[in-house]
Write a structure and sequence with these properties.
The complex is a heterodimer of chains A (542) and B (338).
Chain A: H1 2-12, H2 17-35, H3 45-50, H4 53-84, E1 85-86, H5 90-96, H6 105-118, H7 120-130, H8 132-181, H9 185-196, H10 198-214, H11 217-221, H12 227-237, H13 241-268, E2 284-285, H14 288-324, H15 328-360, H16 364-373, H17 381-402, H18 413-438, H19 441-449, H20 454-483, H21 486-491, H22 499-508, H23 516-538
Parallel strand pairs in A: 1-2
Helix pairs in contact in A: 2-15, 2-16, 2-17, 4-8, 4-10, 4-12, 4-14, 6-8, 6-14, 7-8, 8-9, 8-10, 8-14, 10-13, 12-13, 14-23, 15-18, 15-20, 17-18, 18-20, 19-20, 20-23, 22-23
Chain B: H1 2-21, E1 23-29, H2 34-47, E2 49-55, H3 58-68, E3 76-79, H4 82-90, H5 100-105, E4 118-130, E5 154-155, H6 162-175, H7 177-190, H8 199-207, E6 213-217, H9 218-225, H10 230-238, E7 239-242, E8 253-260, H11 267-277, H12 280-290, E9 293-294, H13 303-308, H14 319-323, H15 325-335
Parallel strand pairs in B: 1-2, 1-3, 5-6
Antiparallel strand pairs in B: 3-8, 4-6, 4-7, 4-8, 4-9
Helix pairs in contact in B: 6-7, 6-15, 7-15, 9-10
Chain lengths: 542, 338
């Protein structure tokens, strides 16, 4: 009996699982606090259902489909031509294509919003010629169109990065296969490369979906009420927290479904890289019209997502520089950097721990713990913030009851850091899990059978192989936190500003032109980080 | 010797005074205006009390106050509408304050009867119109915007915005929920486009010819006129200003206001801060810098506010706006006003 129990425990538990479980639960507490109310029907739920709910769901789904499709169309062809061809500007495109990630969606929205204003004379003409119904349709089409383009063009890099990594790894073999079979590279693209890159596509795509669902700034600005707007309206406007949480639950359910499919997708095939990498650099040369075409494929998303918004910001910043630039900016920038670097380090470490403990002990419940504790990414930032506040508030009450009340967590940077971990674990966990699954299990086995312990194997085998992935995870989190707004706004200590809050405050006052300066600083900092990851991991091995 | 003693005594007094006054208060504020920074600095210079600020949305700040409870470092909550102060009061987050100065200087309608919050500046929700397409006498009241003659001619921002929710609350207070719903449906039908953008964007849309009337707050027109952008200046100057409901209950107004939190550990300094906000000096700045109306009667207006003229204000007690807020959002949802 004891032996059986022992055997059972040994099968289900592992020392490495312990910190993962503890940390996972710690990260889950705020979400759990929020989710606790999910069961009750709020007093206004029926009202919501009969009035606005269907509209929220429709807008959310429409936007998700439109943006994800367009982002895929931007990302995949560009990733393909970068991975297998050499054409004019090829090397530059390879890294500048990830730069839109450095632009916060709300900043890009300010830039794109001016088009709705510029289009007014045209819309007035349409109304005068075709009447008010046609005009109203055109107005709606214009707004949804612009919103789709602006969101897809800042979010496509999520797909680009993961798909391109997949293409690059397959490149050598793909090109050989194409040669052997007498197929063109484009035919290989559809029949082999794309199917192989599907997990990467789904992984990157699911990040895009979550970003779209949780966006609050851009959709509000463009007058497209989604579920996220519904949450705040129901909570604050109607004063019905339980119904608001139900809406949040609805969102998390959608995201959970997506993640589930992504996992299932990954599970269906083995994507582990047997270890050998293409050392040679055999890119097929394109010149003339074909080269121009390839460059064009890269130039379109780059222009929409980076060149245009940045150019506009530069013009605005030039005009308002003297008025806005203050020495405090250095301080705000230092705050941004400090927060982002520390939090990104911690998150990368947690992701590594989670991923490795699952690898050591691949049981279903442990996988679920890590997957669920990353759910914070699927809830709107402000909802996470409130969950964190409630948890920290009760902690503070406990501390105050034993101490003298002088020490408080609330309003300290520790709280913001914790909130970032709750919110952004998915961003670091996704790539680290992906990287870990590509490391062949036989390497670990070999190391362990040679007498190395688990920690030593992690240190000598996994971490070196994961180096690029870890840097990528760090940087993705770093850039996300640099841009982060709702959590920082609400949880920050008094008199504490970051670049993002500075930019937002100026924009909120309607001083769009003046918000260009901090936006550009933010963008430069994020861009620099992104270039670094590119240098480290995405550059094809020479 | 005498001189030395005087010097010593005054030095001691100085040390003592700075010691007792070297104080801090923490303000949770929804206001994002440049003028506030000037005000806070002036207050600190005059009193030696440092003002720490956490700026975020009022609803989120109220949640933070709730979560922090008695441990909160906040001494004051400042919002851009009375409704949310009333909500904070209802949640037990604010403490009643007695100040003769405040009750003398602030009209009763613009402060809580129990002293939980005080309005410090005022704005009116008015109709900005295209002078060339709207005839004099065509504009009357908020109610009149439901008339089919306005079909395709109105622009207004989303009903998620607190200014619209407060306006709706004032209409519910006057006519009841059912009539308010009928009104909202009709106004929604008369809109040129679905609600979107800020109050500024509505004024710009009128200037560009997309619509003829926009429902906006007064100070936005002032901000456009005084913008550094020549384009915005033209928009602001070209827009007509109409104060609706002058022949009945008056134009809907709201306040920026502030209340002392229940958790405040320094309520004396907090009250002093509110008293400073309604001082002649501070009040004179609101019209000049942020184009708001002063709350204190008789405080000077700016040339711009003078040019818009005196107007009759809705005398509804502003606390009612908070009580009717949920009803207002319900009506908006039912009427399909996004």
């Amino acid at each position: 009996m004891v032996a059986e129990l022992n055997k059972y425990l040994r099968r289900e538990l592992d020392v490495w699982s312990l910190p993962t479980v503890l940390l996972g639960f710690l990260l889950l507490v705020p979400l759990f606090t929020v989710a606790i109310g999910l069961g009750d029907t709020g007093p206004k739920w029926d009202h919501l259902k009969s009035t606005v709910l269907s509209g929220y769901v429709f807008n959310t789904l429409l936007l998700v489909i439109l943006v994800t499709t367009l982002a895929t169309l931007f990302a995949v062809p560009a990733a393909w031509v970068i991975s297998v061809f050499e054409f004019p500007g090829h090397r530059v495109f390879a890294w500048v294509l990830i730069l839109p990630l450095a632009i916060p969606t709300y900043v890009s929205a300010f830039v794109y919003f001016q088009f709705t204003e510029a289009a007014i004379p045209l819309l007035v003409k349409i109304r005068n010629v075709w009447g008010i119904e046609v005009f109203q349709c055109a107005e709606i089409a214009l707004r949804y169109g612009l919103l789709t383009i602006l969101m897809a063009s800042v979010l496509y890099p999520y797909i680009y990065i993961s798909v391109r990594a997949s293409f690059s790894q397959q490149r050598q073999r793909l090109i050989e296969a194409a040669h052997t079979l007498g197929h063109g590279l484009w035919s290989v693209f559809f029949s082999v490369a794309l199917p192989l890159a599907r997990p990467a596509l789904v992984g990157g795509g699911s990040l895009v979906v979550m970003e779209v669902i949780n966006d609050y700034g851009a959709v509000h600005f463009f007058g497209v009420p989604t579920l996220t707007e519904g949450i705040f309206r129901t909570w604050f406007g109607l004063g019905d927290l339980s119904s608001a949480l139900r809406l949040a639950g609805l969102i998390m359910l959608v995201v959970f479904t997506i993640l589930f499919f992504e996992r299932a997708e990954r599970g269906r095939a083995r994507y582990a890289d047997p270890g050998h990498r293409s050392k040679t650099r055999t890119l097929r040369k394109l010149s003339g019209l074909q080269g121009a075409l390839a460059a064009g494929l890269c130039l379109i998303p780059l222009t929409l997502g980076f060149l245009f918004p940045t150019g506009q910001l530069v013009i605005w910043a030039y005009r308002s520089w003297g008025k806005v630039f203050r020495t405090e900016f250095a301080m705000h920038l230092a705050n941004s950097f400090m927060l982002a670097i520390v939090a990104a380090l911690v998150l990368t470490f947690i992701a590594l721990l989670f991923s490795y403990s699952v690898k050591l002990h691949p049981v279903r419940w442990l996988k679920s713990v890590t997957a669920i504790s990353a759910l914070g990414y699927s809830a709107p930032g402000a909802v996470v913030a409130v969950g964190v506040m409630v948890v920290i508030g009760s902690l503070d009450r406990m501390i105050a009851s034993v101490g003298d009340g002088a020490f408080m967590l609330s309003g300290s940077l520790l709280v913001i850091g914790f909130a970032y971990c709750v919110r952004f674990l998915a961003v670091s966990l996704q790539p680290v899990n992906g990287g870990m699954s590509r490391i062949c299990g036989s390497l670990d086995e070999a190391s362990r059978s040679l007498g190395r312990g688990k920690l030593a194997t992690l240190w000598h085998i996994n971490i070196p192989l994961l180096r690029g992935t870890l840097v990528a995870a760090f940087t993705l989190v770093f850039v996300d936190i640099l841009k982060e707004l709702p959590l920082t706004m609400i949880l920050r200590p008094a008199n504490f500003e970051t670049m993002a809050t500075t930019a937002f405050s100026l924009a909120k006052e309607g001083r769009i032109h003046e918000c260009a300066v901090p936006s550009l600083i933010l963008l430069a900092a994020g861009g620099l980080g992104l270039v670094t990851i590119h240098r480290l991991i995405l550059t094809p091995q020479r | 010797m005498k001189k030395k003693i005087t010097l010593l005594v005054s030095a001691a007094l100085f040390c003592l005074s700075t010691f007792t006054l070297a104080d801090e208060i923490t303000l949770y504020s929804h206001r994002h205006y440049e003028y506030d920074k000037v005000l806070f600095k002036k207050f600190s210079d005059e009193t030696g009390i440092k003002v720490n600020v956490v700026k975020a949305g009022a609803d989120e700040l109220i949640e933070r106050l709730k979560a922090e409870g008695d441990n909160s470092e906040a001494d004051l909550l400042m919002t851009v509408d009375a409704g949310r102060l009333q909500r904070a009061k209802a949640a037990g987050l604010l403490q009643p304050v007695e100040s003769k100065l405040l009750s003398e200087r602030i009209p009763a309608a613009y402060r809580d009867s129990e002293g939980s919050w005080f309005g410090v500046s005022m704005r009116a929700r008015i109709l900005a119109y295209a002078k060339d397409r709207v005839e004099l006498g065509e504009l009357k009241s908020y109610e009149d915007l439901a008339d089919p003659k306005w079909r395709g001619r109105i622009v207004v921002r989303s009903s998620s915005n607190i200014y619209n929710q407060s306006l709706m609350a004032s209409i519910i207070a006057e006519h009841g929920v059912d009539d308010a719903r009928v009104w909202a449906q009709a106004v929604r039908k008369n809109m040129a486009r679905p609600p979107q953008g800020s109050d500024r964007d509505q004024i710009r849309a009128v200037a560009a010819g997309l619509a003829d009337v926009a429902i906006v707050n007064t100070y936005y027109v002032g901000l456009l006129i005084n913008s550094s952008e020549p384009k915005d200046q033209t928009v602001g100057k070209g827009t007509g200003i109409f104060f609706p409901n002058q022949s009945d209950r008056g134009t809907h107004v709201n306040v920026s206001g502030v209340g002392v939190t229940k958790a405040s550990k320094n309520s004396e300094a907090a009250i002093r801060f509110i008293e400073f906000l309604v001082s002649d000096e501070a009040q004179a700045g609101f019209p000049q810098v942020s184009h708001e109306y002063p709350i204190v009667e008789g405080a000077p207006w700016s040339g711009l506010l003078d040019s818009w003229g005196e107007f009759k204000t809705d005398s509804l007690e502003l606390g009612r706006l908070g009580e009717l807020n949920a009803a207002a959002v319900t009506v908006f949802n039912e009427a399909g006003w996004e």
